[in-house]
């Protein structure tokens, strides 16, 4: 237990709504603590984005205290206290699992050791042991303003070390997503993964195959949109995790001759990080369009080699790759539709005659597709550099300049018209 005078954390650093939740629980006769990432981030000098609360009140008891509460989750039963756009997540303290059948309705594990349901409640000490990493097992008490550190998290924050609580293999089997979280925390917080925490990851990476594809989409989004996507990508490949998420792309990237493909993906993530760190907008559709681009091209070429026309081959390749990858990472339709637009426009960028360039530039996803073309050139696709330069000049020009550029193309980009066949002349009758 660390007193207020030693830990330096003030209530002024907390969300006012989080404080309201803590005091409402306290006044209701329950213990309540701020826990996890918000405490960790404050100690690191980072402004927390979320505030999580843990209590000995059950979800049903929490709901009785808050009219603005909704209960969510089956695997982990949680209470969300809604204050407009801010949501304070409240969890009941977790306990240890029993081996008998008495807790079958509250706890369930798969044959691989993965927790399918974890609604066994316990004490704060037990809850700390159920946390994933030591740096996330820090509890701030609203009663006496002390900090409870049950796993040496304060020292690990000072040492900038990511360490699992308990046996690493067991904890990864309970929830394989912890392998992705270890990487994300290490890059986000500029920390090192402890050797014993790092050691089993590569061998256990196939366990990600047992995680619902929808959950893995949410986890990849966190990895790609936190300003450390390039570093996360490199570490995921190093530990064999990327191959479990995007197997078709990883297979291509693993070939010695795929230098351009590796450069393209890494450059895409580097550009994404630059935009995020400059507070610019990033669309997940662009990221997933890049991640699935090479598998689509490879499948399209294979179908065309079997005799299918290029357009149909490209369309069928898109459908095939999206369906296959959805088995691993289920990208929502709102993003796959955007990715489809980006891919389709790549096939139309060289068709610029007449009104085509103007009409294409009005497409909602044109800017993203244009950036995709620039990424291809930036990564080394030099045969597209002239096309990229033309579009860059076109977008900078006024209407008259754009019309002049199209006229200067001559017949370039126009479809070849089949010559009109002259009607056969009937032989003259004698």
TrEMBL record:
Span of domain Polymerase A arginine-rich C-terminal: 307-423
Domain Poly A polymerase head: residue ranges: 32-162
UniProt xrefs under Pfam families: PolyA_pol, PolyA_pol_arg_C, PolyA_pol_RNAbd
GO annotation terms (biological process): mRNA processing; polyadenylation-dependent RNA catabolic process
Residue segments, region Disordered: 402-430
Start and end residues of each tRNA nucleotidyltransferase/poly(A) polymerase RNA and SrmB- binding domain: 190-252
Catalytic activity, reaction form: RNA(n) + ATP = RNA(n)-3'-adenine ribonucleotide + diphosphate
Keywords: ATP-binding, mRNA processing, Nucleotide-binding, RNA-binding, Transcription, Transferase
Active-site residues annotated for this sequence: 50, 52, 132
Entry superkingdom: Bacteria
Its EC number(s): 2.7.7.19
GO MF term set: ATP binding; poly(A) RNA polymerase activity; RNA binding
Transmembrane segments: none
Biased composition (Basic residues): 414-430
InterPro entries (alphabetical): NT_sf, PolA_pol_head_dom, PolA_pol_I, PolyA_pol_arg_C_dom, PolyA_RNA-bd, tRNA_ntf/polyA_polymerase_I
Similarity comment: Belongs to the tRNA nucleotidyltransferase/poly(A) polymerase family.
Annotated function: Adds poly(A) tail to the 3' end of many RNAs, which usually targets these RNAs for decay. Plays a significant role in the global control of gene expression, through influencing the rate of transcript degradation, and in the general RNA quality control.
Protein name: Poly(A) polymerase I
Organism this protein belongs to: Pseudoalteromonas piscicida
Source organism phylogeny: Bacteria, Pseudomonadati, Pseudomonadota, Gammaproteobacteria, Alteromonadales
Gene: pcnB
